[in-house]
Amino acid sequence: MDERYLIGLDFGTLSVRGVLIDAGSGVAADHHAVPYRHGVMTGSLPDGTPLPTGFALQDAGDYLVAAEEVLTRLGRGRVILAIGLDFTASSPLPAKADGTPLSALMPGEPHAYVKLWKHSAQRYADAINAAGGAFLDDFGGRVSGEWLLAKAAELATEAPAVWAATERFIEAGDWMVLRLTGREARNLGFAAYKAQYSAETGYPRNIVPGLASRLGRPLPAGGLAGRLSEDWRRRTGILGPATVAVAIIDSHAVLPAVGAVEDGTMVGALGTSAAYIFLAERRLALPAGLEGVAHGGSLPDLWLFEAGQAAFGDVLAWFVRTFPRGPDLSASFAAYNAEAATLSPGENHLVGLDWWNGNRVPHADSHLSGLLMGFGLDTTAAGIYRALMEALCYGTRRIIDLASAGGIDTRRVIMTSGLAETNPLLVEIMADVLGREIELPTIAHATATGAAIHGAVAAGVVADFKAGATHFGARSRRHIRPDPDRSARYQPLFSASCELAGLAPVRAAMRSIGPRACGDPDLGE
Amino acid sequence: MDERYLIGLDFGTLSVRGVLIDAGSGVAADHHAVPYRHGVMTGSLPDGTPLPTGFALQDAGDYLVAAEEVLTRLGRGRVILAIGLDFTASSPLPAKADGTPLSALMPGEPHAYVKLWKHSAQRYADAINAAGGAFLDDFGGRVSGEWLLAKAAELATEAPAVWAATERFIEAGDWMVLRLTGREARNLGFAAYKAQYSAETGYPRNIVPGLASRLGRPLPAGGLAGRLSEDWRRRTGILGPATVAVAIIDSHAVLPAVGAVEDGTMVGALGTSAAYIFLAERRLALPAGLEGVAHGGSLPDLWLFEAGQAAFGDVLAWFVRTFPRGPDLSASFAAYNAEAATLSPGENHLVGLDWWNGNRVPHADSHLSGLLMGFGLDTTAAGIYRALMEALCYGTRRIIDLASAGGIDTRRVIMTSGLAETNPLLVEIMADVLGREIELPTIAHATATGAAIHGAVAAGVVADFKAGATHFGARSRRHIRPDPDRSARYQPLFSASCELAGLAPVRAAMRSIGPRACGDPDLGE
């Protein structure tokens, strides 16, 4: 038995997805996914205890059950060189020092469960932001209610007995590593992006009494956490060294899998919303409007700047659901894409702002909203659909331009996920609007593969992430180049959209329309 | 045979519609409509001669044929006290002094035909406006390419031989009166609104060489033109005095029929586009942004201010055609109206600008376009439909507010036509947005009835328009009152729409999207 393998585990919002990779050939050999038993709990706990409005919890025990099934299926009887895992963030939980989640000890207590990334403790974030501090500089002057500090404040304030029993307050990704290895080895990415840790100054002080002692000093990405424990080896049948890397933020795990391991690269994940990561070697102040920056947390020796659009594929799905053109969503998408593809830039005479779910960059304002302008009696449904695509691409370009104005050089644009894979027209428009070549890497299970590469680096299977990307990452990529004529025709339209986006009175008018009732955000993965 | 009658003739864009009214009871006894044989000629003349792009002509002979059929059907063997007629404007034609249209003498010459209101000689208007003159003050500083002066300039410049043969350059309404009576008796309304005539200074001078001698001194509204000629009596079988009034602009004819004959009244005609008339006794400078004002042309002793929205019912029809919800337009309208009626003000979180066909008041800019703002992932199709209705009403309110700011007092709001009759939800929203009671007069054939009242005044059947309105106009009217709560909730939304409408950079961005290809305007009546 010569084969040796890596395993990557991608803990998403609703399930864990695993990939088994042949360490020799670098090729995926198997994959398996298991949903979490209780999914996302927004209405009640497993024992029936009702939850306050706005809560979004998970049961940490579900992660263990799902992970065991995936590891067993992929690893039983195989030599596993390394295991890497990525996780949603910030999804912290209170635990005992040995990793026992408090939810196992207090099953009827909401604050004892994992506060999932989408659970927002906004008023605690508001208080932290109002108090201020230098640690906010790398995050546009504010922390989010979805991040760890606000959730710790919520827990300590609203459930002091739970807080008193909490020995470790830990991201679920770091907790999973603790459970797999028996050792706590936190990741710098979670700490930096979600708990505002800096290598120079540590965690922010005096935010939540007693928080410092419940956190832990983090390790850079690709760091070695330990080896799979005897207990887990017995339960899964995994053989070999089974070195486990520190966990990684799910949205950052994809980077080595798509070859994004160097300065000057931007990676866009075009899902229901869109997330962008800019890689830079040089330290730069966070450009105003971008969302956060940290060093070494997700790739060693690189600054990762974060930005995003609050709705992306969601905007197109909204249109197609609202104005269907076929028996199902897929048929409607096909019909709209086919007709929209026959239009040339400007032919719809529409320009829009893609703020259907508020604006993240640069305004960080959830009360902003979508806008379309240029309607006439000749406007068609497909023209509107194409205008939405164009508005999304204008939004992306504004983010790249903002980064560029702040000194972040973008020489390569890589797009992954969702629409990058399923909607060639969108990618064509994107290339034309950006005036840049777009790389579309071809790789299945990209995120889980990225996690596996973290394992390979930690275990020394490869020398570094660059080698890991080459050996285990995407083997092929398509290059979508802008059409010079179409690209030129988009310039005045993009300028018109920027003019609109820049008008403070338009944003004030949007806010005056009044906030929407609090809806349940999309949980699709 | 005691019955005595009036006849009103409404010459629209595609047909003439006649109504027969019992002079004693004041009630309509019959009606009849006949389309014009050649309709609107945009591609070629009746003999096949192709037309230049942008031409929109009519054959004056068609009016005679249609009028004879209607008058015969309604009047044969009856005692007709008076005939009044209204006509589209500006729709001038070149004729001999006896009324022979030049098109009868030069059937292959485009410039010899009626230049219909929608035919625009814009570059000649631009030249007139560039030269300037005090006569522009009552028309916002500019004449339209659709008005008489520009069309005369086009004719004289592009077809000098036709111009040389032209003895009278005359509105088709005035020409129809000339043909019916054998006497030229022009109406002050056509002269004032479409040829910038003023009682003090006459027609503007030195615009088109030789124009002055081809026009004629006009008479106020309700003036006596003459009696139906022997020739027409023989052809139609009409008996009695058959006094013919001077013609009236079609959009003004409705006023006495709906009881709008006094200071402080606004009448809105909510058709495919919307036209508003404000009546005032006192002389006021034209408020900036309104479209025109003249005295006595359409009702004696009153100043009539004009304004309008370039698209109205067209906007809703566009939406329903673009996103159908039923087997036909009517079913779709019903479905959207039913769902939109369940929404309360602000529930759709949308605000818009109704500029789907450009903006007339106050910007007079056909390159402006429609805008909707406030989209979210929860926006519904019916929410958008209602937002369009609301945007239309915001546009109406902006016009009333503009008039008010200019000193025009509006104490009564009367709405007629199209959506005022067919769309109760729109009228409810209108009352709430305006914060004013809206009167909806109940009268069939309102425009033709108004024309008949002009005949009755000219013939002395009634003492004045007020008496004519009482005896022959609407007998009943519904009063739609605003709901105080809904009305209050519309105020911030209306303010947001005004904020948007007032932003010059938004308008500049709209213009930068680029003008649309020249389409064929809607010819619906």
Protein model, in words:
Two copies of one chain form a homodimer. By secondary structure, chain A is of the alpha+beta class. Among the domains of chain A are: 4-251, ATPase, nucleotide binding domain (Nucleotidyltransferase, domain 5, 2-Layer Sandwich), CATH 3.30.420.40; 313-399 and 484-512, Nucleotidyltransferase, domain 5 (2-Layer Sandwich), CATH 3.30.420. The first copy, chain A, contains 18 helices and 20 strands. Chain A has helices at residues 60-75, 102-105, 122-131, 148-158, 160-165, 172-181, 188-195, 230-236, 250-257, 313-322, 329-340, 381-405, 418-422, 424-434, 446-459, 465-472, 484-501, 504-512, and strands at 4-11, 15-22, 28-35, 57-58, 79-87, 92-95, 114-115, 168-171, 224-227, 243-245, 248-249, 265-270, 274-280, 292-295, 303-309, 351-353, 370-375, 412-416, 438-442, 476-480. In chain A, strand 2 (15-22) and strand 3 form a beta hairpin. In chain A, helix 10 runs antiparallel to helix 12 and helix 12 crosses helix 14 (424-434). The model of chain A is unreliable at 518-525 (pLDDT under 50). The A-B interface holds A 311, 314-315, 318, 322-323, 346, 349-351, 355-357, 369-381, 492-493, 495-497, 499-500, 503, 505-506, 508-510, 512-514, 516, 519, 522 and B 311, 314-315, 318, 322-323, 346, 349-351, 355-357, 369-381, 492-493, 495-497, 499-500, 503, 505-506, 508-510, 512-514, 516, 519, 522.
